[in-house]
């Protein structure tokens, strides 16, 4: 009886399944088939054995991730940076989107909106050279053109740990805020202006209308973006943590993340099994966190949960 | 909107101006250094006002000849990929917002799961090249890993959930419109801002991608712009660092490696900057449609 | 419910991967069959092989040159070759794909060691093949061929390059001449002596950094040191392998002393404050008049080669006598899943010994891609240069087996053979370290090194404080285990090669 009604229901909805089909097929081919490669994490790969026939080594490939004295440092760094990126990034993007949305002058809106997108067009390697142009000890812009005229001793950024949490966070926001903010902007521009007018007539001030009208409209997007970022919380932008600090050894304690550790450890050995293991570990943690986050959201508001 | 808010407008303008200066300043350094003589930068660092001009990096890039062809390839791929990708994305996202759809949770999970786990490069490469034989075809630039992306699907879904009034859909159904008709004639026009957003994000992904070209393309006629530029750069770097005297006869001394990086960044992002206002138009449009819908 | 979802997904993925798996194993079986058949009818028909290698050179006219190469090789050994050439940038990213056996590769160039090829089982055991078909290679390489050997199995053929070298100072000869420092430079015997020159240059040329590192922040400064590093720095033989005692380099007096000198220079301002994050190589800095000297791998040809690549008149001082050590920077291996191993070996031998083939592959067809000048050296055709000529691959498997290009040292070939054959040899010459048993330790050691090594070796870190810290961290990461493993392997190697 239950099954029958499911089939009946499904029949009624067939156009929707057809619409979902192309993407589902694509994911099956592009993502699910290669997932067989996850098995590499438990193998010592050889050409003759191939992906499925190579020698199984159990959890051996995972050992290097936990044995190191750096295991704590890299996990801490990865988590803390990601938390700041998620929280700060959301607030900043909404703030900028709100300013853009509320600007009355169309020309400045257009100009600002275009300009803040530029950094998103640059690869992180180029960003690292720009950062170097500003931070370098002998030739850097900050030391030469800002600190020197003020009579301040030059700062050797690449060997002083204390600056890097700020530098990395700044660089990250510099690069992604533009792209993130257009997402919120799209959502804001869909809000019915009539609502604002009504609120205005009721005497609501700017802060209140933001809190009561704009923000609720953004909640689903905020939840989606945050849940997705939580799934990537053990991953990090390799370029940001490796290229931007110019691989400087002196500041490794504050720039080491799981990805840079894996890269530094495997660049000379190119071990397929071990790099697969690192990826698998990051994915499993991400997966668990997404499930937890989703369960919590489901409890609070069913409508906004992912599934 | 709020009436007396000249104060707010001035502050908002000011804040945005400061943010834009923060953005533009390093970019100005970038552009200026791409047209400075390499020796100046190496010796005295980057500067906003070049002491003298030197276009040798650009000469080197455009001297390769195939650059316009590569632009063409990338533009064609970006346009096709973005259009197809956006259609696929919006369709599945819309499905995921249908109330009471059996299996909706499963499909959402199916989509999300692809973001978390990945089989890695080697299995994907084996599949695409040995089963689908896409090496050295234009499909290699279009399809692997770029066409559809769970991130875009899920953010589009939350936009739909929030901004498409259910009453409109219901009344259209009452009028006897088919579901496809509703989707293309009502849902999509109401979603121009998000389509422009994910369209832009997709275009950006296609535009900046060089890995597909790297792995699947050996035919020079199919190499996209980013792959071409990336190749120039890594070659120049390798040649500059190579200590293996025996292997390189070709004279490496003439390649400007430092300014080349900067020039490559400029050449790579320029068309996107030109293209962006085209997308931007649709944000404004989104406003007016939004105003009509209520 | 959730668990169900997961299991459904996993099953789907499994089914899908089985499909991939089936396709794969089928082709494997077929390949095996064809292989044995081909072995039997070997002499009757021409075998075709594909060789994958990187090059920065021009290759628009590849097809034409290959035709000329094949004409010779078909007749001599019954083999036709196809070169698949990648740009260096592309190469380093694709190399791991080639190694994983997904590509139709018969023979492969390995840049920066072939150990990964061996550990993934991608390298063919050529111990017998090389005896049968590689006599010219054996004769030419002599002892150096052992560099391609692990545990008594020959896997790779190193290109015939300069094996004997030592650490040396590379500097701007023209600046030295200009400042009249020639006599002082002639007296420099060790690294400390160089300080006087640096001081003079600093005073006379304020725009020029007296000392920079060789390859920027991508490699440690003492990469090419006085010791035989046996593949990595974890356990070395001091003094170029005088004895076979594997020691901890970082605890040696010599290492501490070298770091001390560099740190002294750093403090006195002979190097940049940012030396440990230096982004550009010495070559680039020199081209732009921004650097005076560096330390690096030095041999009989360094001054000549550096002069060409820096575009300046360069000099080099060897700080110790050149010593020959295991060389595996550029090697060729045959893919383990090839059907044409014999043909590959035959061709490798021909490429190694046949001057006509050597010239064709490096420079193309005479009169069409290059010409000989009055000294018998190769040069571009009139009106052409590096960017307009249609073929100039530059790659070679033996550096003596071709004419010299006009920018090269005219006597290079003779001097190379002389240097290689007369040089002092490391006790462990030909030894290659197999890191399989200590992979976990090495990932950690590499991470420790990334924290300290560049800083110490460039002089930015004070060895008084940081060297002990570095050594302690290395020991924590298992350095002693690796050294013990290395000693064991070196002893076994020496016992087998008595």
Automatic annotation (TrEMBL), chain A:
<protein>
    <submittedName>
        <fullName>Putative aldouronate transport system permease protein</fullName>
    </submittedName>
</protein>
<comment type="similarity">
    <text>Belongs to the binding-protein-dependent transport system permease family.</text>
</comment>
<feature type="transmembrane region" description="Helical">
    <location>
        <begin position="163"/>
        <end position="186"/>
    </location>
</feature>
<feature type="transmembrane region" description="Helical">
    <location>
        <begin position="213"/>
        <end position="234"/>
    </location>
</feature>
<dbReference type="InterPro" id="IPR051393">
    <property type="entry name" value="ABC_transporter_permease"/>
</dbReference>
<keyword id="KW-0812">Transmembrane</keyword>
<feature type="transmembrane region" description="Helical">
    <location>
        <begin position="276"/>
        <end position="297"/>
    </location>
</feature>
<keyword id="KW-1133">Transmembrane helix</keyword>
<feature type="transmembrane region" description="Helical">
    <location>
        <begin position="112"/>
        <end position="131"/>
    </location>
</feature>
<dbReference type="GO" id="GO:0005886">
    <property type="term" value="C:plasma membrane"/>
</dbReference>
<keyword id="KW-0472">Membrane</keyword>
<keyword id="KW-1003">Cell membrane</keyword>
<feature type="transmembrane region" description="Helical">
    <location>
        <begin position="12"/>
        <end position="29"/>
    </location>
</feature>
<dbReference type="InterPro" id="IPR000515">
    <property type="entry name" value="MetI-like"/>
</dbReference>
<dbReference type="GO" id="GO:0055085">
    <property type="term" value="P:transmembrane transport"/>
</dbReference>
UniProtKB/TrEMBL annotation, chain B:
<dbReference type="InterPro" id="IPR035906">
    <property type="entry name" value="MetI-like_sf"/>
</dbReference>
<dbReference type="Pfam" id="PF00528">
    <property type="entry name" value="BPD_transp_1"/>
</dbReference>
<comment type="similarity">
    <text>Belongs to the binding-protein-dependent transport system permease family.</text>
</comment>
<dbReference type="GO" id="GO:0055085">
    <property type="term" value="P:transmembrane transport"/>
</dbReference>
<keyword id="KW-1133">Transmembrane helix</keyword>
<dbReference type="GO" id="GO:0005886">
    <property type="term" value="C:plasma membrane"/>
</dbReference>
<feature type="transmembrane region" description="Helical">
    <location>
        <begin position="260"/>
        <end position="279"/>
    </location>
</feature>
<keyword id="KW-0472">Membrane</keyword>
<keyword id="KW-1003">Cell membrane</keyword>
<feature type="transmembrane region" description="Helical">
    <location>
        <begin position="71"/>
        <end position="94"/>
    </location>
</feature>
<feature type="transmembrane region" description="Helical">
    <location>
        <begin position="138"/>
        <end position="160"/>
    </location>
</feature>
<feature type="domain" description="ABC transmembrane type-1">
    <location>
        <begin position="71"/>
        <end position="279"/>
    </location>
</feature>
<keyword id="KW-0812">Transmembrane</keyword>
<keyword id="KW-0813">Transport</keyword>
<dbReference type="InterPro" id="IPR000515">
    <property type="entry name" value="MetI-like"/>
</dbReference>
From TrEMBL, chain C:
<dbReference type="InterPro" id="IPR006059">
    <property type="entry name" value="SBP"/>
</dbReference>
<keyword id="KW-0732">Signal</keyword>
<feature type="domain" description="DUF3502">
    <location>
        <begin position="428"/>
        <end position="495"/>
    </location>
</feature>
<dbReference type="InterPro" id="IPR050490">
    <property type="entry name" value="Bact_solute-bd_prot1"/>
</dbReference>
<protein>
    <submittedName>
        <fullName>Putative aldouronate transport system substrate-binding protein</fullName>
    </submittedName>
</protein>
<dbReference type="InterPro" id="IPR022627">
    <property type="entry name" value="DUF3502"/>
</dbReference>
<dbReference type="Pfam" id="PF12010">
    <property type="entry name" value="DUF3502"/>
</dbReference>
<feature type="signal peptide">
    <location>
        <begin position="1"/>
        <end position="22"/>
    </location>
</feature>
<dbReference type="Pfam" id="PF01547">
    <property type="entry name" value="SBP_bac_1"/>
</dbReference>
């Amino acid at each position: 009886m239950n099954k029958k009604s499911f089939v009946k229901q499904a029949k009624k909805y067939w156009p929707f399944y057809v619409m979902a089909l192309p993407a589902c097929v694509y994911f099956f081919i592009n993502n699910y088939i290669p997932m067989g490669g996850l098995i590499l994490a438990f193998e010592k790969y050889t050409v003759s054995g191939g992906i499925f026939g190579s020698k199984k080594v159990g959890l051996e490939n995972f050992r290097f991730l936990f044995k190191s004295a750096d295991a704590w440092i890299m996990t801490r760094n990865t988590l803390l940076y990601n938390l700041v990126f998620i929280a700060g990034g959301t607030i900043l993007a909404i703030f900028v989107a709100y300013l853009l949305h509320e600007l009355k002058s169309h020309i400045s809106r257009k100009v600002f909106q275009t300009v803040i997108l530029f950094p998103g067009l640059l690869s992180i390697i180029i960003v690292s050279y720009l950062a170097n142009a500003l931070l370098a000890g002998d030739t850097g812009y900050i030391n030469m053109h800002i600190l020197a005229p003020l009579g301040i001793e030059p700062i050797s950024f690449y060997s002083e740990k204390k600056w890097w949490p700020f530098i990395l966070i700044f660089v990250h926001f510099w690069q992604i805020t533009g792209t993130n903010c257009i997402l919120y902007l799209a959502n804001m521009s869909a809000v019915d202006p009539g609502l604002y007018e009504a609120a205005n007539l009721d005497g609501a001030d700017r802060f209140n209308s933001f809190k009561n009208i704009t923000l609720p409209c953004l909640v689903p997007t905020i939840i989606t973006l945050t849940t997705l970022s939580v799934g990537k919380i053990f991953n990090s932008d390799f370029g940001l943590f490796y290229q931007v600090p110019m691989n400087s050894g002196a500041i490794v304690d504050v720039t080491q993340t799981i990805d840079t550790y894996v890269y530094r450890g495997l660049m000379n050995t190119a071990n397929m099994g071990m790099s697969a293991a690192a990826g698998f570990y990051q994915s499993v943690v991400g997966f668990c966190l997404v499930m937890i986050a989703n369960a919590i959201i489901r409890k609070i508001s069913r409508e906004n949960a992912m599934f | 909107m709020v009436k007396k808010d000249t104060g707010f407008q001035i502050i908002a303008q000011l804040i945005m101006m400061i943010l834009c200066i923060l953005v533009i300043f390093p970019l100005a350094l970038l552009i200026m250094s791409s047209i400075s003589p390499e020796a100046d930068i190496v010796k005295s660092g980057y500067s906003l006002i070049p002491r003298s001009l030197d276009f040798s990096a650009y000469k080197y890039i455009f001297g390769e000849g195939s650059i316009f062809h590569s632009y063409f390839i990338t533009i064609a791929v970006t346009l096709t990929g973005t259009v197809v990708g956006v259609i696929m994305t919006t369709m599945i996202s819309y499905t995921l917002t249908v109330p009471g759809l059996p299996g909706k949770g499963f499909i959402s999970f199916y989509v999300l799961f692809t973001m978390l786990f990945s089989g890695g490069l080697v299995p994907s490469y084996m599949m695409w090249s040995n089963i689908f034989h896409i090496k050295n075809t234009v499909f290699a630039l279009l399809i692997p890993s770029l066409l559809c992306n769970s991130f875009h699907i899920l953010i589009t879904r939350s936009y739909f959930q929030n901004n498409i009034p259910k009453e409109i859909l219901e009344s259209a159904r009452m009028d006897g419109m088919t579901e496809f008709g509703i989707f293309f004639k009502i849902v999509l026009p109401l979603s121009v801002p998000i389509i422009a957003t994910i369209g832009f994000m997709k275009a950006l992904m296609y535009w900046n991608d060089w890995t597909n070209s790297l792995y699947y393309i050996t035919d020079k006629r199919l190499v996209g712009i980013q792959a071409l530029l990336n190749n120039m750069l890594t070659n120049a770097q390798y040649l500059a660092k190579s200590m293996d005297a025996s292997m390189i006869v070709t004279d490496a001394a003439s390649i400007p490696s430092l300014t080349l990086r900067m020039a490559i960044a400029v050449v790579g992002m320029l068309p996107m900057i030109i293209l962006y206002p085209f997308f931007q138009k649709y944000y404004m449009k989104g406003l007016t449609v939004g105003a009509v819908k209520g | 419910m959730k668990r169900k979802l997961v299991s459904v997904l996993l099953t789907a993925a499994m089914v899908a991967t089985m499909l991939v798996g089936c396709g794969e194993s089928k082709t494997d079986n077929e390949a095996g069959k064809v292989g044995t058949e081909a072995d039997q009818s070997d002499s009757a028909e021409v075998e075709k092989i594909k060789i994958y290698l990187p090059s920065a050179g021009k290759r628009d006219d590849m097809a034409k040159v290959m035709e000329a190469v094949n004409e010779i090789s078909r007749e001599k050994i019954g083999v036709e070759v196809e070169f698949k050439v990648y740009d260096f940038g592309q190469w380093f990213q694709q190399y791991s794909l080639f190694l994983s056996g997904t590509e139709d590769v018969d023979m492969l160039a390995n840049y920066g060691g072939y150990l990964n090829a061996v550990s993934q089982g991608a390298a063919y055991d050529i111990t017998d093949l090389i005896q049968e078909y590689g006599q010219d290679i054996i004769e030419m390489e002599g002892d150096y061929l052992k560099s391609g050997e692990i545990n008594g199995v020959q896997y790779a053929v190193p290109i015939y390059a300069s094996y004997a070298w030592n650490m040396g100072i590379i500097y701007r000869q023209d600046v030295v001449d200009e400042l009249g420092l020639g006599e002082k430079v002639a007296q420099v015997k060790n690294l400390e002596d160089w300080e006087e020159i640096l001081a003079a240059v600093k005073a006379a040329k304020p725009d020029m950094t007296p000392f920079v590192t060789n390859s920027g922040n991508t490699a440690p400064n003492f990469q090419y040191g006085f010791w035989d590093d046996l593949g990595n720095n974890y356990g070395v033989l001091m003094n170029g392998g005088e004895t076979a005692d594997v020691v901890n380099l970082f605890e040696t007096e010599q290492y501490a002393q070298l770091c001390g000198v560099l740190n002294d220079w750093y403090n006195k301002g002979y190097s940049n404050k940012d030396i440990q994050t230096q982004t550009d190589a010495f070559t680039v800095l020199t081209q732009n008049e921004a650097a005076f000297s560096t330390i690096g791998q030095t041999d009989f040809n360094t001054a000549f080669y550096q002069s060409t690549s820096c575009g300046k008149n360069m000099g080099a001082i060897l700080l110790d006598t050149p010593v020959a050590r295991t060389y595996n920077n550029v090697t060729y291996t045959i893919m383990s899943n090839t059907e044409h191993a014999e043909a590959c070996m035959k061709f490798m031998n021909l490429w190694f010994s046949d001057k006509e083939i050597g010239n064709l592959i490096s420079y193309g067809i005479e009169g069409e891609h290059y010409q000989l000048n009055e000294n018998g050296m190769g040069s571009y055709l009139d009106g052409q240069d590096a960017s307009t000529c249609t073929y100039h691959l530059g790659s070679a498997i033996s550096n003596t087996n071709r004419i010299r290009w006009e920018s090269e040292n005219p006597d290079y070939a003779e001097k190379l053979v002389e240097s290689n054959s007369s040089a002092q040899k490391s006790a462990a010459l030909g030894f290659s370290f197999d890191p399989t048993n200590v992979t976990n330790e090495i990932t950690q050691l590499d991470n420790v090194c990334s924290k300290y090594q560049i800083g110490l070796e460039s002089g930015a870190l004070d060895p008084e404080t940081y060297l002990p810290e570095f050594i302690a961290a290395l020991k924590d990461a298992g350095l002693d285990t690796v050294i013990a493993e290395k000693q064991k392997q070196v002893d076994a190697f020496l016992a087998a090669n008595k």
